[in-house]
Amino acid sequence: MKKLATFTALTLAMSCANATPVSVNPLIIEQQGSFAVGGTVKTSDGTYQPRPEITQNHTSNEFMAVFNESIASGGQTLHGDHATVSYQIPSNAKKLPLVFLHGAGQSMRTWQTTPDGREGWNNLFLRKNYAVYLVDQPRRGWSGRSTIDGKISATPDDQFWFAQFRMGEYPQFFNGVAFPQDAASLDQFFRQMTPNTGAFDVDVIAESLTALFERIGNGVLVTHSQGGIAGWFAGIKAPDLIKGIVAIEPGNFPFPDGEVPATIDSAFGNIEPTKVSKAEFKQLTNMPIIIYFGDNIADQPSKIQGKDQWRIRLSLAKQWAQVVNKHGGDVTVVHLPEVGIKGNTHFPMQDLNNVAVADHLANWLKEKGLAE
Amino acid sequence: MKKLATFTALTLAMSCANATPVSVNPLIIEQQGSFAVGGTVKTSDGTYQPRPEITQNHTSNEFMAVFNESIASGGQTLHGDHATVSYQIPSNAKKLPLVFLHGAGQSMRTWQTTPDGREGWNNLFLRKNYAVYLVDQPRRGWSGRSTIDGKISATPDDQFWFAQFRMGEYPQFFNGVAFPQDAASLDQFFRQMTPNTGAFDVDVIAESLTALFERIGNGVLVTHSQGGIAGWFAGIKAPDLIKGIVAIEPGNFPFPDGEVPATIDSAFGNIEPTKVSKAEFKQLTNMPIIIYFGDNIADQPSKIQGKDQWRIRLSLAKQWAQVVNKHGGDVTVVHLPEVGIKGNTHFPMQDLNNVAVADHLANWLKEKGLAE
User: Fold this and answer.
1) Which domains does chain A have, with CATH numbers?
2) Given pLDDT bands bounded at 50, 70 and 90, which one contains residue A248?
3) Bridge-partner residues for B36, per DSSP?
4) Cβ–Cβ gap A32/B123 under 8 Å
């Protein structure tokens, strides 16, 4: 009886340890905090009335009526379209911080705890002594204040993203996929998503990134997916501050006028390459760039959404690298399975092997002199 | 000449110190991360088609058309209405963590860096060895995924909130207000705001808080403003887990059926006290509760919005404390100027004297045995 009790206690202790992995070493954080950066101010016509004429008492339910009277008088401002940044600076921080920008439908949570409760790249790169700046882009997450109206549809679409993000063909995961396949982890993953609160605007996002680097100084930009597009434009705007760009499965690539390749067909939505001026393009030859793609990407047209959607982007990435390098740039495209890192979804920073991918990136940063 | 140079260097060093205050001691963090908690799953009618019939190739601009085809086939889920939690557990953490819930129009940024760049209560209470859990309530900030449609109006309203949050009568600050009065700080403050992505629902929020305490165990709940209302209902639902409640200028108070006081009039929107059952009310006599109110609150009806709006809530708070204490509870209402802490706005956790207010709270936690 006693032995059984001990065994049960041990089992419980072990399952607790599995549920909440405890890191061996604490993080030593010299500074941490949050701030807004970039953005604009919109002002309504009229004159603000701090003491509106109140003709009668309003009931509790009429608080909104008072609010509406106040904004109707006009002359008020709205501070919006900024990015919000959460940062941590560890002790003995390296010179160049890492700035992380999420992708479509995501927020800075992309870089934090993984869906199954392991440490994300935020913690992993703090442990490698990088200062880490996480961004919620304008009109997303903490940066929800937009200067244009927004409409949010609550139409179920998780399965579309499961396919697009290359977990598998719902409800089947791809064989050998490096994503946790238990229900609780998938639940957590879906709950990372958070909508645009106003129209997606790549220029507004790129400007907020530029403003961020102007505030914090030189650094390395790490983008994910849709965020990659804003990242290229940030690199074009601030090539002296952005000392390197890491793009995890970016959505598109800016080719110079006159060297734009053909659109690549996909049954799930083509990619028309982005076009920029030669002068703009030239800026992206000023910093080393690495682009990562994961596993389960087709090399021929496929009827599987995720495999086909990233086939066309990986193909475009390789074409873009050639053009940048021909113009004196330094772009490396890493197709992870080719370097022995297998099973990755569209979220390698969260996959089961996210430590291996982080280590690969850390080596590249070191090689390029960005890890001092 | 040399003396001048030394003087200049010293001046520069001093202004840098002002711009970015560097804390003397680093934070030692044993664990940190984020997760979703609570929420629901909404499913659309139909059958999900992982391989929709694609009759023609779609161009890049038709990615949304593919997305719309996918969701139109139905059979998809939406995981929404959860809270999102960011947590840090310092070394030598006290037994009971603090859970912080923001107010109207805000997110967990309420508790982080102040508008003028000082440490907020997140850092201050980590330094006091509390584990800290910051919440973005359902349909706000990182928890933007809602099961009901949302509409966001980009109508300028900063000046309404400046008044409601008791900074002053825009553009004038109140005399002696403990809020930084430079333009950059006010800009940062306005940019903390972030809208609801779906209708505000106090039950959904209270349920997510309950789910959070079920996950992390016993703790103390700290609420701000509108968040206070969800906080009372969380206390009613989980009185065994919520060992104390701290309410910073809560928006309303739950009175027991039969003891609901008269509605208090304000020209800027009355307060009709919240009514709960006697059994529900009784749960709030099970834990110590402290309620804070700041400065510039009128004791007679006032034509100044902020002074009048918090007059009626402070008055209601005092009535509520009497009723709870009569039923065997332990509620303390602290009107900060009466204990010598002056000038506070609706955001004492960010005001210039936020350290003094935090210390007052820390003493109360100690007195009530919540600081072990």
Assistant:
1) 41-79 (no CATH), 81-367 (3.40.50.1820)
2) very high
3) B84
4) yes
